[in-house]
Amino acid sequence: MTIDDVAGELYGLDPGEFVATRTERAAQARADGDRDLAKAITALRRPTVAAWTVNLLARHAPKEIAALLDLGDALRSAQRQLSGDKLRALGAQRQQVVNAMTKRAGELAAEHDRPASEQVLREVGQTLTAALADPDVADQVRAGVLPATVTYDGFGPAGLVAITGGKAAAPAKRASTRRSGKSPEDVEAARRAEAKQELDDAESALETARSARDEAEAAATRAKTELEEIESRIDKLRTELEHAEQQRHFARTAEHQARGELTSARSQFERMQRWADRARARMDED
């Protein structure tokens, strides 16, 4: 048993089964006398729902994932070659493939009884896009062992900042624009293509953030409305309760009075019964 074996198993499980299975594998490693392996297993983080969705995609659509990551290799190659035409063509293809893979991930999640929210699907798309830019992220996606989703700033080796679990990887050194055999026009075209790609990514990220903000505002409005409705129902129920308590008080008073009248009526009946009995007895004597 190796850490790769355990990670492959754990990150293929439903998130709800992760912790219990991790505990079992760590205990097994300790029982085998491998304390280092047990420590490494214990350090494995439970995946977020979005990361689990990416891992699910990697396991159920490995060919599609491989094709996606091959596109990432082509994009990085085009950038190293300062090929503006290739960058533009591959950039358009990249978005289409990421969108298709994100949709497929959502379908797989629903099939496994964990329907993905819009926020989860956004994180899946961001992670797949980051995998195109960062070979290390690509390796994790390919293996299906992501503990958390990944976002990035910019595109390609130049200016890449991959963020996983709150930690940012240092951007790679910017490729030199002075390459033999490339005319100034080619260099400028490649630079503009890269700038255009970065602008497209920034605008896409801005739109995602705008959508998230709008959804949050709508959710806050719905929550406020629901709270007001609940408070209104509580006020109404409180008024009804006060009215019911008053009715109970009146009913209790009436019941007490009725019991008193019943006791008095019974006493009166018994006296009249005795009187009638005495009158009958005198008649019998006569």
From TrEMBL:
SUPFAM superfamilies: Tropomyosin (SSF57997). Residues 167-227, 245-270 are annotated as: Disordered. Signal peptide: none annotated. Residues 182-199, 245-259 have a biased composition (Basic and acidic residues). This is Transposase. It comes from Nocardia rhizosphaerihabitans.
